[in-house]
Structures are given as C-alpha cells and as structure tokens.
Design brief:
The structure is a single chain. The protein is 37% helix and 14% strand. The protein is of the alpha/beta class. It has 2 domains: 6-167, Orthogonal Bundle (Lysozyme), CATH 1.10.530; 183-368, Aminopeptidase (3-Layer(aba) Sandwich). The longest helix is centred in the last third of the chain and has 18 residues, at 286-303. The relative contact order is 0.11. The structure holds zinc ion (ZN).
Length: 370
Amino acid sequence: MGFLDCFLKCFSSKPQNQVPPQLPTDSIGEEHPLSIQDELEKYLLATRFEKQVHPTIIAQWKLETGNFTSELCKKYNNFSGLKWREEMEDAEGCRKVSYTSHEGYPIDYCAFDTRENFVKGYQKFIEREVYFDAFSPEHQRTGEAYLRWIVECGFCPTEGYVEDVLALVDKDTPSDPITPDNPASDYRIGIVIGHNSSAQGATNIMGESEFNFHSRVMEKVVSKLNEDYYIKMYFRKPHVSYSRQCADIASRLDDDAIDRAYCIHFNSYDGKTQGIENLVMSNCSSNSLKMASVLAEVLHKGYGYPYRGDKGVKRITNEAGSGMLRAIQGKGIDCTLVEHCFGDNPSSKKTFGDEDNFVNLMVEGIRKAL
Ligand SMILES: [Zn+2]
C-alpha cells in the first residue's frame, strides 16, 4: 500500500552519498525562517511518534523527496509520496490531487496546504487500519523497528528501502530508545485500582463500574509492561475507614519498594462534562508531575478529550482522592491519581468501546514518563 514516488526509485538505486546536499535555509519559501528539516522536526514533536523514531522519519522524507527537492513536496507539501486514501478525507488541510509520477500516468496523491498539516497528515496516514500496530511501544522503540513494521505492512514495496532510509538517518541526533539496559527499567511501578469490590465507584455508559472495568483492563496493561518493568496491581481492601484503606495501600507499595504509583479512576458528573484530569498533590515531586502530564497528553492525543486543569494536570490540596495521594506521597513514592475520562459522557464510548486501544494508550503514557 502506501506510496511510491519517482524519487524513491531514483534515490534508492543510488549510493547514499549522492543525495543532493541539504538546501540552504529559506530555499523554498521565504516565509519560513527555519530550514525545512528543522521545521518538520518541530512539527514531529507534536505527534504520537516517539522521539527516538523522529530521525528515521526525517530520513524517510529526505529519501522520498530527494532531500526536499521533489515537485510533490515543493508544490503540494507532500514529503512522503503519500498516495490518496479515503481515510485522508477529513485530514486537516489535505486534498486529493492528480500527479504524474515517474510511472508516467497520473495517480491521486495527497496535497497539503502547509508543512505542519503534512506532518499531521503523515501521522493520520500511519494511523490507518493497515498499519494498526505502528504506535505500539514495541514498534516505537527504535526508528528501525518502526520502519520495518510499516514496510512489512506494505508502506513501500521497493527492495532495500529500509536500508536506504537507515543510511540517511542523522547519526548526530540523539536517540535514546528504552531498552531493558536503560536505567529507566529499574523503576518499580504500582497500579492502584480505584475503589473496591464493595464500593465500586462510578458507573460508565456501558453500565460497568470503575472497579470492575479497571480491574480487568489494567491487568492487560500490566501484562504488557511487565516484560520490561517490575509492575504490580494493588486493590484496596474494603474497610469502613477510607484513611485506613489509603494507609494500607501506601504501606504495601512501600513494602514492595514501588517508585511510581498510578491510582486509576474515571470521572462521572452530569453526563455532559468531559475531559482528562490527572491529580497530583500541590507539593508533589517533579516525577509525579511528569507522570500526570505525560499520561494526560497521550490520552488527549489519542481520544481528543479536552484537558482539564493545567493541560490535564490538577494540583490539589484537600479534595476527594487527596487522602490516597497524601498517604502514598508520604512514603516518598511518586504518584498521580488518574481520571482518564468522564465515564458518563457519551464521548467516552471511544474509551470503553475499544479496550485494546485504551490498553495501548495507558502503556504508552506510563512508559513515556519513565
Ligand atoms: Zn473513582
């Protein structure tokens, strides 16, 4: 599937060192003060692609445009030979154009109004069913893993494509894939399921309680992460005293030497309110803040739910839920209380109707903060 552009054929058959030198700044539009590459890199930061994958994507675009010189990129801001696909219909600033490539006959390609919308459009292109697993931690772990995956799914049928792209990856760009050797994997993670079997919390639009939904789904999150990390679920023991429940959880986390705890909830209010809010204590650690904000960002991008509080993070002093945070923080453990959506809002079907997607986003959000 995917694309095939004349530049690709030209360049993949040439040794890498014959790729034209990088264009000087402003060579294409004077209104752009950054070099094209810098500009594209900047927009990539706002996508779901992991940072360590960015240099490979840039290399891909360099190859496909002959170092940003192709007609398709100059005229249509299409830096990746993206052929038109129905799913691109609602991509921002994207339309269908007929363009005659090296094959000698017109083919429908995507045209973008701006470079920024191209980068968003590229993400959208990869979010299509055919590349279904492209954003999993496994395939975002390194640029090569990502590239091999999309090629395997049919992104480019040209032989040697992966090697040609990898040869163009800018080796100076730091990349820090998370591997089992990475110190980050020393973190010990606790997942605290909100509420308990006798008081199950709010009910979502599918009629399932917070406690039941999270007990089931977070189990899947744990099983995905426990290949690389020590991670364990914690359940609150029913007890009349809430502070006793909190103290009990905090001491069990402490006994297991947990570094980072996520208390998992969804919100519920009037059926109309929506959004993500991850709670932290107002005097929390910077790691706690990072856990809350990174996860909020991943969920926001994944579902389009609005942020509540400061970009999805709410610092609290004395509210419902703060007892648990205070008890855990009191043990020196970084923590956030996650309210990943309003479960009584019809829009939350996006969450509850596709559990695997929810699992993947949670895995991504937890992993990214390590
Ligand atoms: Zn709750």
